[in-house]
Amino acid sequence: MAKLTWLVTGCSSGFGKEFVHSILARGDNVIATGRKVEERLAHLKNTGAAILDLDLSASEEEVTAKAYEALMIYDGIDVLVNNAGYIEFGLAEDFTYVQNTDALTALAQFNSNFFGAVTLTRAILPHMRLRRSGTIVNNGSMLGWQSLPGCPGYNATKYVLEAYTENLQIERSPFNVRSVVFEPGHFRTSIISPTNRKESFSTHEDYAPMLEVLHKHAENNNGNQPGDPKRGVEVMIDVIKGEGVAKEKEMPPRLPLGTDALEVIRSKCLATLKICDEWEATIKSTDFPADTSAYKFTGDDFTSGK
Predict the structure, then answer these.
(1) Residue 6 near residue 28 (C-beta atoms within 8 A)
(2) Which of 121, 167, 173, 267 has the largest count of CB atoms under 10 Å?
């Protein structure tokens, strides 16, 4: 396979850092991005990676300009990995759209975890469409299937990233631009470490028992997560390149990573099927009676040319 050029966001630690090392080890080019690169990406300076300062919470104009700058480094980008994101802990009752408050802010979470990825993807996609080649990788989460109490903003951004990826898969397939969303479970990164963790918890006494459990969970989970980021990244790269464990396999539209993710997603699918089976008659009863002329539309109509 020809040498690929990758653009990876959120490379200061965790999956992003592992992506950079693994991509370089396979002989590909990589553009590692993050905020305050002199400080936060200093550990990558001598690896052979190109380093680009990129703040995904900046304006659309600034992010787009940085994307064009990235395209010039190696004369194109073959794989975009939208990996950047963070968790802000809080409760749904405190979840607000208003910025510049001490409450849990929806806008900040969405700007970092979703809209930043959308803006960057939007800037890179025309290049891939014109070349009729490219891959968009969105790093989602098992929390895009099953919400975890205490982080409604993070859960919501991962749910919407799933839907956005499905749109890309349908709309871009005629141009040979592929998209995949990976759904990791709990991996041993620093995302919930005390230095990275943001909290905006309610002080209402009704929530005290729940908050005690949530704090204990975060403390016990940090540094003890079952997932190995290096192994996870190696699988993701295999899937994207069709190598190793993915050799001679078609790239899936989504892929859970980790035993916990598999259990959570499988359980959610089975529970949803159970609802569909138990409520099937009621669900169907909302249609017009015996209306054979009703129009039926699916995303397959786009890819099949109907």
Answers:
(1) yes
(2) 121
